[in-house]
Amino acid sequence: YNKSTHSPVPLPSHIFHGREHSSATVPLMTPSPTAQTSAAQAQPAQCEEWVQKCPLAEVQRIKNSEGNEIYDTLDPKTRTRLALIICNIEFHYLKRRDGAEKDVENMKKLLKELGYKVEVKCNLTSQDMAETLKQFAARNEHQTSDSTFLVLMSHGVKDGLCGTDSRDESTDILLNDSIFSTFNNKNCKALVRKPKVIIIQACRGKSEGRTFMSDSAGSPSDDTSFTVLSPEEYEDDSVEQVHIESDFIGFYSTTPDTLAWRNCNTGSIFITRLTEYLRKHAWNCPLEEIFRKVQNSFDDFPRQMPTKERTTLKKKFYLFPGH
């Protein structure tokens, strides 16, 4: 399942923290004074804010230029955005997910700054996870919200996430399909035509190197061919017709049949990079473009590739931090 060491080796910052390689920079051109002024007006304020806020002028520019191609956002003074984080850390039969607390901390802070009231539930069986999702889907606040985030983190298998009573790939598993069906347009009418973002940090298979530990319900293999990262630091880790399922975007930490890696001290590489890119780019990029940037950042980490699945967003979803 997992193994750990007591002498971690420092990891180069470009490998883990989501920073782009310096070699990827492009030559800069000196803009005209007019262009410099326009660019300055569109830039977020340079301050100590954790999430870069979107200037009002940029909000208006995007709304004017994109028109009906973007999802509506409601007035922050009256909207009631909700987000749910489910994170399993302690298990009865599987290894503890060390470092997952940091993922919860970062995602909670991020979503709060994006305007969501965040609820956190930890260490649930698959039945309890399913019931928590159903209760969350029934919340009245969704009526006056414009979107929702669901973040689920646990050990995992190809088709779902492990509950705290899971022993292997077939016991106490919350199926991914059940997450989408709980929030589809038949079962969650309050979120019809509103973006529903599902983020899942979990392994989806057993492909791994023995020098790492994984968010997997299975046992490690003996593959030792991959040595890019230091083994001491990581573990894997009205009556009308509407579509039954629409306005979703699922973002998984890894592709099917592979592992998702997690640092025992700082959390998973997926959640770390996702948080970093949302902090930096939510002010002027739609969500799907931010997800693409996260995927691109994994070129330096061939063991794992985040993947968008069951994406049925019909428009661009801008978060407009601060608005």
TrEMBL record:
GO terms for molecular function: cysteine-type endopeptidase activity. Gene3D superfamilies: 3.40.50.1460. Residues 79-207 form the Caspase family p20 domain. Belongs to the peptidase C14A family. SMART domains: CASc. The active site is at residues 155, 203. InterPro entries: Caspase-like_dom_sf, Caspase_cys_AS, Caspase_his_AS, Pept_C14, Pept_C14_caspase, Pept_C14_p10, Pept_C14_p20, Pept_C14A. GO terms for biological process: proteolysis; regulation of inflammatory response. Residues 238-321 form the Caspase family p10 domain. Signal peptide: none annotated. Keywords: Hydrolase, Protease, Thiol protease, Zymogen. Pfam families: Peptidase_C14 (PF00656). The keyword Hydrolase applies. This is Caspase-1-like. The lineage of its organism: Eukaryota, Metazoa, Chordata, Craniata, Vertebrata. GO terms for cellular component: AIM2 inflammasome complex; IPAF inflammasome complex; NLRP3 inflammasome complex. It comes from the Eukaryota. It comes from Crocodylus porosus (Saltwater crocodile).
